[in-house]
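Observation: inputs received (chain + zinc ion).
Thought: call the complex predictor directly.
Action: predict_structure
Action Input:
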Amino acid sequence: MSKSLEFLTEALRRLPGIGPKSAQRMAFHLLQHDREGADMLSRALQQAVSAVHHCALCNTFTEEEVCDTCSDEQRERHLLCVVETPADQLMIEQTLTYKGLYFVLMGRLSPLDGIGPKDIHLEKLLARAADGLVTEVVLATNFTNEGEATAHYISEMLKARGLRVSRLARGVPVGGELEYVDAGTIARAMLDRRAT
Ligand SMILES: [Zn+2]
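Observation:
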């Protein structure tokens, strides 16, 4: 195989769930059938990598210093909702029941995968939650084992600093990932959230 082709295959293998066979198939496909798509992919990647970074306040993806949600004057600044991913944030937004601000972990604690407190930006969350305006932190991590463990860890960390913490109510099924739960269920879980 040519050096360049080998390099491309190696690069494609960086994608989650892509093994050597799939990476090779993708590389052949792009070069043989979709050169225009390959060019688009390479430009889009380059642009996103240089332009997109994390919001200084909530940690979500943005091209600004502070994202649109955090800059929105209409949001209630005393409520801070902690979610695992931007997709989860979007799901909560769609319920139209929550008007506070967010913190996006960009992951969850997962000791088996070597993901610890540093990897989910808990120091940034702590600084954010202790800004003097936030009076309640709502934990909306997934109802999976890892999501529950993450919620527990964050709850202990924030309560030790005197912050009020609540957790989405059950109603979201056990093992449930917010991204795949209907908006009505999440809305109810948000309204029925309980202190931890
Ligand atoms: Zn933000």
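Thought: report the result.
Final Answer: The chain has a mean pLDDT of 92. The helical segments are 3-12, 20-33, 35-51, 68-71, 86-95, 122-129, 145-159, 183-191.
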